[in-house]
Design brief:
Helix content of chain A: 55-70%
Strand content of chain B: 15-25%
Oligomer: heterodimer
Strand order of the largest sheet of chain A: 5-4-3-8-7-6
Distance between the termini of chain B: 60 Å
Largest sheet of chain A: 6 strands, antiparallel
Largest interface: A-B, 37 and 43 residues
Largest sheet of chain B: 11 strands, mixed
Distance between the termini of chain A: 124 Å
Chain lengths: ~850, ~525
């Protein structure tokens, strides 16, 4: 009985059955074949235990035959397993080869059972002598050939693949086959046959296969070699030193007896024990420096970052440093860092690499990648994103964003168990994929960086909150000031609108009379001046938010592009470079396209004028989505900037720094009014001497007005003649004007200066049309409307309101509610005619 | 993004499986999560285009519930005026190509395919092939350089588009080559394909199940036609097949000549012809559910060839319970409610409603297909998603006395079980003395007609319990078998060809043909 050999086989056998229990857990074809292989190997080594132990049951030969039987089955299964792993099972030639192996294997199994392979086995003084029949030699030959073929196939496939993990796996399998082959051939030598070398080699091979098949991503071949060198070099150095010291001591003093050598050995061992750790560290450093430079650099990088990262509180500086360190050390072409924002979205805050340049992307809170990284352990490769079904939920534009980012690896940055950021790494310059070693380094780095990043983010948030607080305070003051101003403007506008209507109307009426050319020219001038005044009043009313925006579903980027196109020539001739950083696929929103165009036009004009004075500059327009529901547009120039002392006044109406006649001072105040009307906000930031940035934030709105309200159909119709019309207005000039105008049109016109008088007239006579002011003494337009509605509902549709009081919220609400036709003062004759035509449509006119 | 061809070249089979078939491992929650997310993208795209806004009644829903509440169910009629004119300006995304289907009335239905949908369809083609060739999870045999014999309709039919698109992901060798296919008619394609396959072999085949069965049946005649072949590879293949047939003691079959890895069959006749196809070709055909309007694969069988599993990324699925579906057909003003994937119940029938993803246009669209949920999970394959079978097009179900609802699949199966040769058939509901009857027009020269009618009645009773109840409970025998001479359907096809009809309209519809079609067929039968 050979205890040592039996023990080796017993350990091997137990190991095989242990591995088998793990293998059976996964129900894949590869696993099933591998499980069968492990079972065969387990039975083989179990037979060897019985054989080496000289167990007094059945004798030696049956155990040896049983061992051979299972080893032949294991060989066949190994061939099948290799073919399946290499995906060659559908290749006809390989399938034919497999069938040849099965056939020969079957013959050998029959031969073995019939006792035609092994005929003598003897144990003498711990040595075994096994005699083979000639039939077994073809088995050895074929097994050798098949093993060599498999080694070559695995090696070739490993070199061919560009996936690091797959290469690792295949090379492991190649090495496993080398070990199995070497172990098997040890049996040819009668001297080696007596020891279970094949068992030892096969156990190591099986362990490697387990790693290769199940856990290959955790064990990098480079890592194994590196560790091997790390332990073998110090061992060699220590061994050599030990040998040298003992030899020298014996040679020099000749007198060492056994106990003295023991003492000397203990001394050397003590010195070694003290020296071994520093020596190992030194050796590791040296090995990494010489053979694994990248690893060495990575370690230095980690040391540097762990020293400095925590002390940096500026988010931009920290992310910049992280990116520089990683891209330089690991030779990566592109990289970016996304940081979690308040709303749970991940925003790209820093990037490196041409493809990511200008890439302003954000991952939504429900982005599949963010959710996966937040809920699972580990990192994601590009292949994972491409192949895992969970990522089928990615939107088209999200896939586009990832493409632009060029991320090959997405490393989670976790602080206190929460995902606070994502490190996106592009491909390596060497075009190699990231090894397991790289991934470990990056995960370590991410752990360091996450805490620092979270600190910096909190600090940045705090700074921003303070800034926003200041800004909000300033805006509140401004809003309060402008609100008071708006109310005053609205009142003044109302007072101005009435006389303007009279002036415009009479001027137009008189132009139709037979007058001298000089008088007509003068009337023309009066009319033009009145129209200019009308535009000023309209702008003032816009500022005072007197007009309802005309809402439609629009693309803000498109509005910016269109506005830019309007100014492109002027910008070019003024030597202004235009930089557009418009976020692709910005959500559409409901807004008034023309009003927003007016806002952007004002901002672009201001910027252009500011830069033109210094001979040119750069205009940057940027659009982005913030917090998922706000679109931010910034217009930046490189002009002289706005002095701090006038910043609080820039949105005030009529405030201008331009020369007299070059600007009305209404542009920014009107823009402010429009943006506020849209539920947004606007403000400016300026750095004197460097430039100014105007920021406009608009909410993303998705509700759309009904189609009927969007559609405007203009029909040209002949004016209805000979209708009975009642005019009601407390402004006598306007009444007189309208009476004269409508009589000239051929209508029968009556007039009233207030609502009560109008009711009296209506009681006396029927009217086809009523034109009424809204704000009047005694009985105003609203009460008049309600009275008519109650007494003569058919007439309600035939009321046209004229008003100069569009700034009043009450008036606006009333007119909106009833939906009747309305004319805003001042109006011209054509507008009036159009309204009358429209109102009389249903009246057979 | 590595394609299946590259991954297979590198031996990364696990990733191939995960990429193309991994969706079957999704949980129901993950599946609905993907659906909901892609629906929100689609709503955003629809809101940006004229037709989308019109279909969504000018609203932009912010959730799935809002979407189901605000957007009405649609049919092709809602899109016809735009799609028939290929109005690209009204669509969410500019189409990459246009596909069309035959339509039940012979009118083409056009469907725009976006670039993303097209590539998704290509991926789905590979999904089907992997499942068709698999014996279990991860175990599939399709590979680069496989030879594909396709005997279906060419592009712009969806099956033709899918066949071509699949070639962009795996390196296939098509016989006949795809550029030649468009120039040939159906018979020429089959002829040339099989001639070429004698030399090249066939790894993958795609066709109607009835076509594959028919090829198998007529293989003895084909065998004689093949004998003069001189090419050594072809001769060798024929000799080998002859030996195999002799050893099996029967006439030669396709299985002796070719060893198919995968066979993909479309059409409602798969269930009826499955056994025959397996017998002749030694491969179990894979059944799938797709429609031109889907723009991709909606559901597919896996390796166990039982229920079909829905795909998560082609469109958003809703389901109308059968009773509501029927009610809405009787009363068009009834807007039927829908249920979602996680509300389905096993053993119940539903009408499918779907919304395209990826910039397609069909929104809450009713293609009129009735499916049956056979189980909510499949323990055999480990799939934790509802399993369905295709029942019929809702408008092609023959309802007898409100008791029995016969579909095309059942009639196919009943006819096939007779084991009697026939040229063609069509079935519809007619009335005799105000009593509904099931009239089947069958072109056969079988001598024992009465016996055939009795056997068919018995077969229908076996296949459909409700049909059996008609006799046992109401004492009704609704089957009326009208025999037509063999050659009638061939003459119909010639007539349609002469009229310039497309390949999809050569045969009359199997179920519920119109009076006009029935009259034409009867006229031809008398000629």
């Amino acid at each position: 009985m050979n205890i040592m050999n039996s023990a080796v086989c017993l350990v091997a056998s137990l190991l095989y059955f242990l591995l088998l229990s793990f293998s059976l857990r996964v129900k894949r074809r590869i696993n099933r074949i591998f499980s069968a292989y492990l079972l065969a190997m387990g039975l083989w080594t179990s037979s060897s235990v019985m054989w080496f132990a000289d167990f007094p049951v059945l004798g030696d030969l049956p155990w040896l035959q049983a061992g051979l039987f299972f080893s032949i089955i294991a060989w066949m299964l190994m061939c099948l397993l290799s073919v399946v792993i290499l995906s060659l099972d559908s290749v006809p030639a390989v399938r034919a080869g497999l069938w040849a192996i099965y056939s020969l294997g079957g013959l050998l199994l029959i031969g073995d059972v019939g006792g035609q392979l092994i005929h003598v086995t003897r144990i003498e003084r711990g040595h075994f002598d096994v005699q083979f029949y000639p039939l077994i030699y073809p088995f050895f030959a074929l097994a050798g050939l098949s093993s060599m073929a498999l080694i070559l196939l695995f090696a070739r496939a490993g070199i061919k693949t560009d996936d690091h993990n797959q290469r690792n796996r295949l090379l492991y399998l190649a090495i496993s086959n080398v070990l199995i082959t070497v172990g098997a051939f040890a049996n040819i030598s009668p001297q080696l046959r007596s020891f279970p070398f094949d068992v030892l080699f096969d156990v190591v091979a099986a362990l490697l296969m387990v790693y290769a098949i199940y856990r290959y991503q955790l064990l990098d071949l480079t890592f194994v070699v590196r560790k091997g060198l790390l332990y073998s070099i110090p061992t060699a150095i220590i061994g050599a030193g030990y040998f040298l010291i003992i030899s020298l001591a014996m040679r020099l003093f000749h007198a060492f007896a056994g106990s003295q050598i023991l003492l000397l050995s203990l001394l050397v061992a003590a010195i070694t024990a003290v020296a071994v750790q520093p020596l190992r560290d030194k050796v590791q450093s040296w090995i990494d420096k010489v053979f694994f430079r990248e690893k060495y650099d990575s370690r230095l990088m980690l040391q540097r970052l762990s020293r400095t990262a925590a002390s940096i509180l500026d988010l931009r500086q920290l992310t910049s440093m992280l990116l520089d360190e990683v891209t330089n050390t690991m030779h990566i072409s592109k990289a970016g860092i996304l940081v979690k924002e308040e709303m749970g979205e991940f925003r790209l805050v820093a990037q490196r690499g041409a493809a990511a340049e200008g890439c302003d992307l954000k991952l939504r809170r429900d982005h599949p990648i963010a959710r996966w990284l937040a809920s699972k352990e580990g990192l994601l490769t590009r292949d994972d994103v491409d192949t895992m079904p969970q990522f089928k939920a990615l939107w088209g534009r999200e896939r586009g964003d990832l493409e632009r980012l060029g991320a090959e690896l997405l490393v989670p940055l976790r602080a206190k168990g929460e995902l606070v950021g994502i490190f996106a790494l592009g491909p390596k310059l060497s075009e190699e994929t990231y090894s397991a070693d790289d991934q470990i380094t990056l995960t370590t780095l991410a752990n360091h960086a996450a805490v620092a990043l979270e600190n910096a983010r909190l600090f940045s948030d705090l700074k921003q909150s303070l800034q926003e607080l200041k800004q909000t305070r300033a805006q509140l003051i401004q809003a309060d000031k402008l609100s008071a101003l708006g109310q005053m403007i609205a009142g003044v506008a109302h007072e101005i609108n009435n006389p303007l209507t009279t002036i415009m109307g009479y001027a137009q009426l008189l132009q139709g009379e037979k007058l001298s050319d000089q008088v007509k020219r003068d009337l023309e001038r009066i009319s033009e001046a009145a129209k200019r005044s009308q535009r000023v009043v309209q702008n003032l009313l816009t500022f005072a938010r007197a007009y309802e925006p005309r809402k439609e579903y629009i693309d803000i980027n498109q509005v910016i592009e269109e506005t830019l196109a309007l100014r492109s020539y002027q910008l070019k001739v003024n030597n202004i470079e235009v930089v557009k950083r418009l976020k692709g696929n910005l959500p559409w929103t409901v807004a008034d396209r023309y009003q927003l165009q007016q806002v952007f036009l004002n901002l672009i004009n201001n910027a252009q004028q500011a830069m033109a004075e210094q001979g040119g500059g750069r205009l940057t327009l940027r659009s982005e989505l913030r917090g998922g529901d706000t679109i931010r547009v910034t217009v930046s120039d490189t002009g002289p900037g706005i002095p701090e002392e006038i910043m609080p006044k820039i949105f005030d109406p009529f405030f201008t720094t331009k020369e007299v006649g070059k600007g009305s001072g209404l542009g920014l105040s009107v823009s402010y009014g429009i943006v506020s009307e849209h539920g947004g906000r606007s403000w400016a930031e300026s750095d004197e001497g460097k430039g100014t940035t105007f920021i406009v934030e608009l909410p993303v709105r998705r509700e759309v007005m009904p189609v009927a309200e969007l559609a405007v159909e203009v029909e040209e119709e002949r004016g209805p003649e000979g209708k009975r019309i009642l005019i009601i207005d407390d402004e006598e000039d306007i009444v007189a004007l309208l009476v004269q105008l409508l009589r000239e049109e051929g209508h029968r016109v009556s007039a009233a200066l207030n609502g009560q008088e109008a009711l009296r007239r209506m009681a006396e006579k029927d009217y086809d049309l009523i034109i009424s002011d809204v704000k009047m003494p005694t009985l105003d337009g609203r009460k008049l409307y309600e009275h008519i509605k109650a007494t003569n509902p058919e007439l309600v549709e035939s009321i046209v309101f004229i008003t100069g009081d569009t700034a009043s919220a009450d008036t606006k609400a009333f007119l909106k509610e009833i939906g009747n036709l309305r004319l805003e003062k001042p109006f011209d004759i054509e507008e009036l005619r159009g309204a009358i035509r429209e109102a009389l449509k249903g009246d057979g006119g | 993004m590595a394609t299946a061809a590259e991954l297979l070249r590198q031996g990364r089979r696990d990733e191939v499986w995960r990429k193309y078939c991994g969706f079957i491992d999704l949980s129901l929650e993950e599946f609905t999560g993907i659906q909901e997310r892609l629906l929100m993208e689609q709503i955003d795209l629809l809101a940006r285009c004229e037709l989308g806004r019109k279909i969504m009644r000018n609203t932009v829903p912010k959730s799935v519930d809002e979407f189901r509440e605000a957007v009405p169910l649609t049919t092709y009629q809602d899109y016809a005026s735009y799609l028939d004119e290929k109005r690209e300006d009204v669509l969410p995304v500019k189409p990459f190509m246009w596909a069309h289907t035959g339509g039940t009335t012979g009118r083409w239905k056009w469907a725009p395919l976006t670039r993303r949908t097209y590539y998704l369809y290509a991926e789905h083609a590979i999904t089907m092939l992997i499942f068709a060739s698999s014996q279990g999870r991860d175990h599939f045999t399709i590979a680069n350089n496989d030879v594909v014999l396709y005997v279906g309709a060419p592009p712009p039919y969806m099956s033709g588009i899918g066949t071509e698109a699949g070639g962009q992901i795996l390196d296939f060798r098509y016989i006949p080559p795809l550029d030649k296919v468009r120039e040939l008619d159906f018979r020429e394609r089959i002829q040339l394909g099989f001639t070429m396959s004698l030399r090249t072999g066939i790894d993958i085949a795609g066709a109607l199940a009835s076509v594959m069965a028919s090829i198998g049946e007529s293989f003895g005649e084909r065998e004689r036609a093949l004998k003069p072949l001189l090419h050594p590879a072809a001769a060798l293949r024929v000799i080998r097949a002859l030996i195999r047939a002799k050893r099996a003691g029967r006439s030669m079959m396709p299985r002796d000549m070719w060893e198919l890895k995968a066979l993909i069959c479309s059409g409602m006749d798969v269930a009826a012809f499955r056994d025959k196809v397996k017998h002749y070709w030694k491969v179990d055909p894979l059944e799938f559910y797709s429609l031109t309007e889907f723009g991709g694969l909606a559901a597919t069988q896996t390796w166990n060839r039982k229920g079909m599993t829905f795909t998560p990324d082609v469109g958003f699925f809703e389901f109308i319970p059968e009773q509501d579906s029927l009610r809405s057909r009787d009363d068009p003003s009834h807007e039927p409610p829908t249920v979602l994937m996680d509300e389905l119940e096993a053993s119940k029938r539903y009408e499918v409603v779907f919304t395209n993803f990826h910039g397609g246009i069909f929104t809450r669209y009713r293609p009129g297909d009735l499916i049956k949920i056979i189980a909510l999970e499949d323990d055999e394959t480990g799939v934790r998603l509802p399993q369905m079978i295709f029942e019929a097009r809702a408008d092609r179900i023959i309802d007898i006395g409100g008791f029995s609802r016969l579909n095309e699949r059942i009639v196919w199966q009943a006819l096939e079980s007779l084991d009697a040769p026939y040229e063609g058939w069509m079935a519809r509901k007619e009335f005799e003395d105000s009593q509904p009857v099931l009239r089947i027009y069958l072109a056969t020269d079988h001598p024992h007609r009465e016996q055939l009618a009795t056997r068919l009645h018995e077969a229908l009773k076996t296949l459909d319990e409700d049909y059996a109840d008609l006799e046992s409970m109401l004492d009704m025998k609704p089957l009326r078998l009208r025999f037509l001479p063999v050659g009638t359907f061939a003459r119909y096809a010639q007539l349609r060809q002469a009229e310039g009809a497309d390949v999809g309209h050569m045969k009359p519809p199997y179920m519920q043909p119109s009076d006009e079609i029935v009259n034409t067929v009867l006229r031809l039968a008398q000629e």
